[in-house]
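Why does residue order matter? Because the sequence determines the fold. Keep that principle in mind as you read this record.
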Amino acid sequence: MPKHHRSRKETDQIALQFYNDKLLHNPTLRQNCEDRHVLDETITAWKDEQYRLTGVPIKGMSRSQFIFSLRSRWKLIDVKVAEENVIVWSDRADYLQSSSSSSAAVVVPAHVNVHVDSKADKIAKTIERIRNSRQEMESNRDGIVIDPITFDGNDDVQSGGGGVLRIGELASQTVRIRNTSYMDVHCNLKDNVSSLR
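Structure:
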């Protein structure tokens, strides 16, 4: 079956449509999508929604193409920190639709004291917030206890967190979940969630 190839103009328009539909008027979701894992899931969900609405699947456009267009064409993403799977939205993102110019200015009354974070500060704050959010997501709650994730039979990987798995070596990852609540809990495990850099 031949692959569907989209022009750059098409991918740019689809990426902007995604942003307008899902993120423009939802600052909470937009902030959550600074975590690349959440953004990827949001893009996939939006593509599924479009298929249900139109009956036409959005083929020939990967999640990385969405991000590339949002960053390079529409300037909605200021920076991407690949090591942390974090993206930072541009300050102009909220004002793109209010002006035909991509360099729209925001007028602030003279008496208002405005502190503008440097790019480095913005990145550091975003990374810290996402790390805390991931730790909270993995923490115990409502009687569900999750033991620390370990790698069985590989002391190097297990001990340092920065361990190296050599070519041909096998590491088994163990996740222990105990239900100490008063109700049954249904657990789902996604393959991509269990991967580790």
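The beta strands are 77-81, 86-89, 144-146, 150-152, 172-174, 177-179.
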